């Protein structure tokens, strides 16, 4: 089933599936957490 969600940067089928959304969210939040951790450790080193 084709939806309008697989248009922009996510140009593949099932780009809006719950599994892909969960993986993307974990990667993005993990990257943000790593940046915050690095910033705190760098600022107070």
TrEMBL record:
Domain of life: Bacteria
Record's keyword terms, sorted: Membrane, Transmembrane, Transmembrane helix
Sequence intervals crossing the membrane: 20-40
Name the UniProt record assigns to this protein: RNA polymerase subunit sigma
Organism of provenance: Thermosynechococcus sichuanensis E542
């Amino acid at each position: 089933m084709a939806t309008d969600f697989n248009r922009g940067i996510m140009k593949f089928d099932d780009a809006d599936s719950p599994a892909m959304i969960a993986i993307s969210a974990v990667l993005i939040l993990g990257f943000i957490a790593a940046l915050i951790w690095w910033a705190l450790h760098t600022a107070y080193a």
